[in-house]
């Protein structure tokens, strides 16, 4: 399967998007390329762009690289973030009619890859440079674990989903994508339904 661009080209694009090149960028590019290869998606940023949803489990450098390679974006509702602090991502082919709920593979970086980098290049003192060199060269099997998984995705989570816009009875702000909550006879946004769970605090 031919990918949209070569590894070096994708890495260059990821570097531009992220602002610098690091070991995490290399891992992210390779992780995404492997996921696409396993799913048989050749052109995720154009012809196959509506087939793919990607779940990422960390908000670090690799995440930007994965977004570049896959074309999945938060604003397109094709990139889903789960704050698990793991260097892992799950790639879901929602256009695969042979698999209910889509065909999906979860790929995680092996902890042992850092030790392998030290073994391969002990003469390089800088850990990032050491890992960058090793992560370019190590085979996929030494960098990643792979699991075929099932990812149930509700209709309201899919790209392109449309819903009516509801107004919160307390704050008056609009609510999209069926995120409203019925409480005590009122239709509320998540922040008004449970003020203690807000990520922000109102300054009076």
Q: Portion of residues in helices? A: 25-40%
Rg value: 20 Å
Structural class given helices, strands, pairing?
A: alpha+beta
Mean pLDDT: 87
Distance between the termini: 58 Å
- State the total count of DSSP E strands: 9
What's the number of helices? 7
The assigned CATH architecture of the largest domain is 2-Layer Sandwich
Can you summarize this structure?
With about 200 residues, the protein is α+β, with helices and mostly antiparallel strands.
Labels describing this entry:
single chain, 204 residues, alpha+beta, 60s Ribosomal Protein L30, Chain: A, 2 domains, five-stranded mixed sheet, two-stranded antiparallel sheet, 18% strand
Textual characterization of the structure:
Helices cover 33% and strands 18% of the residues. By secondary structure, it is an alpha+beta fold. The protein folds into 2 domains: 7-157, 60s Ribosomal Protein L30, Chain: A; 166-197, no CATH class. The strands form 3 sheets. A 5-stranded mixed sheet has the order 2-1-3-4-5. A two-stranded antiparallel ribbon has the order 6-7. A two-stranded antiparallel ribbon has the order 8-9. β8 (181-183) and β9 form a beta hairpin. It is elongated. The termini are far apart. The model has no long low-confidence stretch (mean pLDDT 87).
């Amino acid at each position: 399967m031919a990918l949209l661009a070569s590894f070096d080209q994708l890495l260059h694009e990821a570097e531009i998007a992220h602002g610098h090149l690091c070991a995490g960028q290399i891992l992210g590019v390779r992780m995404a390329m492997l996921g696409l290869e396993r799913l048989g998606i050749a052109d995720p940023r154009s012809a196959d762009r509506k087939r793919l949803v990607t779940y990422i489990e960390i908000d670090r450098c690799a995440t930007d690289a994965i977004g570049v390679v896959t074309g999945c974006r938060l604003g397109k509702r094709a990139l889903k973030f789960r704050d698990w602090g793991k260097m892992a991502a799950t790639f879901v082919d929602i256009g695969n009619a042979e698999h209910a709920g889509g065909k999906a593979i979860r790929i995680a970086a092996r902890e042992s890859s850092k030790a392998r980098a030290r073994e391969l290049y002990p003469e390089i003192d800088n850990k990032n440079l050491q890992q960058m060199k090793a992560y370019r060269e190590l085979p996929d099997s030494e960098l990643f674990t792979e699991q075929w998984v099932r990812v149930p995705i509700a209709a309201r989570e899919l790209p392109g989903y449309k819903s009516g816009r509801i107004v919160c009875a307390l704050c008056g702000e609009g609510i999209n994508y069926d995120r409203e909550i019925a409480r005590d006879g009122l239709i509320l946004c998540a922040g008004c339904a449970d003020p203690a769970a807000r990520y922000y605090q109102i300054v009076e």
